[in-house]
Amino acid sequence: MEKEGLIRAVRWLQENNVQLDTLITDRHLQIGKWICENLDNTKHFFDVWHVAKGLKKKMVGLGKEKDCESINPYESPVLVCCIQRRRRIDAVG
């Protein structure tokens, strides 16, 4: 569903002569593959919120393992840091 929506949106943009230099998406694997195969000259980035969410999930899992509990206090600060970085990037343009 997400991939089909992206394909339709890209087709519409191309039909209306809009050049895609950069595209930012979530971390959907099929979308990433489709972009690589069909949009050669387009830079593809993952949305930092989705990256931070995935990183936090991995940190939570790691913190549950034996002798890795010391990572737990860093879960939220890492997420906050990523979000603040995103806001700075958005403000700059």
Please supply descriptive tags for the structure shown above:
93 residues; mainly alpha; 2 domains; 4 helices; 2 strands; 62% helix; 9% strand; Transposase
Write up this protein.
Helices cover 62% and strands 9% of the residues. With 93 residues, it is mainly alpha-helical. It is elongated. The protein has helices spanning 2-15, 29-38, 48-63, 75-92; strands at 22-25, 43-46. Helix 3 runs antiparallel to helix 4 (75-92). A two-stranded parallel ribbon has the order 1-2. The two termini are 30 Å apart. It contains 4 helices and 2 strands, in the order αβαβαα. It has 2 domains: 2-46, no CATH class; 48-92, no CATH class. 1% of the residues are buried. This is Transposase. It comes from Patella caerulea.
Write the layout of secondary structure elements.
Elements: H1 2-15, E1 22-25, H2 29-38, E2 43-46, H3 48-63, H4 75-92
Parallel strand pairs: 1-2
Helix pairs in contact: 3-4
